[in-house]
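Duplicate of #3305? Posting structure anyway:
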């Protein structure tokens, strides 16, 4: 019988959608979450919308002994490591907490894997590991490490820790998934992104404007060297992203070593275009105003997704309109998040 998959951060935005994809594909899932940035209510919703059950442990991914216990108790065959702090501005205010949590969880998981004989891991990395590049799109060969924030550096360091571990321990297989800009929500409208406070990323901000909680979207930079002057990003649907993790797991059935794979669509969308797509999804205009650029922002990020297709047989299928419609369904049905 197939072993279970341990998902860290399983109540979070990415982890919860990964659990849906796993259950849909017939995997057994075990979630670990400390609920520091997520709600336990997500689990009930996941069971409802998938019609399937899964195990959950209220442990901290930074606790190696607890992780080893979970791996033994639940007959874990592989880990999908999504847990982590993820706010860029907060990471600049709290670098030590970010490094402690984001590196500590990876080290603890690796120790627990070594102790229990688990050899497969998929890691939530980010396109933020790439510094600014004049050459587009971004392939996995682009230089990394020139990150402006402790959040970004924690991803770079985690990639290195996992690469070194996979080289040192026989039979280990690791896939580092570099996400571009995941947005959207499960089409059921039951789970989605629920950041606290004033959102830093564009989609949660747009949703707060759409629900009247914030008056206007600041467009952070209208003078970039792009067709409409606003920043271009490679937005992908969270459900496509989640399916990329299952594809990586399948790849790991026969692969040992470390592979790095971009998850993106290969298409760039401007801030103005995403605002228009959201207006279409909502059916009303959304107020915007041009503001200064955010420090450290760049004009364009766009993935070369060819390796994901070649290696994992994965490509993003869902459109920008679906991303916006699904985001809106989630936000309008769950005004409290
Ligand atoms: C950000 C993070 C990145 C992280 C990713 C997760 C930074 C510098 N980078 O990427 O590390 O992995 O989120 O999704 O924070 N924008 C506005 N108004 C806003 C917010 C954003 O116009 O209120 C614009 C930005 O200038 C940018 C685009 O929208 O052009 C996307 O911004 P955002 O959603 O914050 O994502 P990134 O900055 O690409």
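Output from current build:
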């Amino acid at each position: 019988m197939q072993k279970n998959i341990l998902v860290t951060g399983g109540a979070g935005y990415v982890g919860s959608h990964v659990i849906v994809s796993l259950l849909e594909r017939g995997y057994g899932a075990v979630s670990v979450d400390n609920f520091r940035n997520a709600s336990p209510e997500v689990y009930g919703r996941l069971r409802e919308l998938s019609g399937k059950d899964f195990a959950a442990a209220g442990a901290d991914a930074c606790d190696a002994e607890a992780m080893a216990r979970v791996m033994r108790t639940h007959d874990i065959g592989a880990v999908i490591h999504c847990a982590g702090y993820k706010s860029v501005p907060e990471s600049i205010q709290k670098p030590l907490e970010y490094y402690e949590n984001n590196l500590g969880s990876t080290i603890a998981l690796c120790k627990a894997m070594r102790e229990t004989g688990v050899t497969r891991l998929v890691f939530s990395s980010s396109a933020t590991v790439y510094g600014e590049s004049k050459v587009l799109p971004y392939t996995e060969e682009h230089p990394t490490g020139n990150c402006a924030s402790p959040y970004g550096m924690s991803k770079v360091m985690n990639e290195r820790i996992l690469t070194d571990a996979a080289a040192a321990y026989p039979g280990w297989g690791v896939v580092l998934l570099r996400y571009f800009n995941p947005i959207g929500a499960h089409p059921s409208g039951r789970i989605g992104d629920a950041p606290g406070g004033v959102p830093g990323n564009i989609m949660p901000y747009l949703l707060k404007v759409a629900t009247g909680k914030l008056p206007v979207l600041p467009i952070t930079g209208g003078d970039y060297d792009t067709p409409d002057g606003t920043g271009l990003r490679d937005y992908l649907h969270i459900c496509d992203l989640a399916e990329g993790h299952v594809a990586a797991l399948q790849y790991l059935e026969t692969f040992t070593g470390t592979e790095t794979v971009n998850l993106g669509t290969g298409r760039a969308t401007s801030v103005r275009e995403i605002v228009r797509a959201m207006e279409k999804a909502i059916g009303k205009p959304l107020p915007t105003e041009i503001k200064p650029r955010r420090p450290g922002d760049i004009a364009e990020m766009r993935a070369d997704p060819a390796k994901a297709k070649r290696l994992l047989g994965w490509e993003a299928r869902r459109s920008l309109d679906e991303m916006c419609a699904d985001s809106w369904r989630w936000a309008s049905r769950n005004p409290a998040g």
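Confirmed duplicate; merging threads. The CA atoms of residues 172 and 335 lie 43 Å apart. The radius of gyration is 19 Å.
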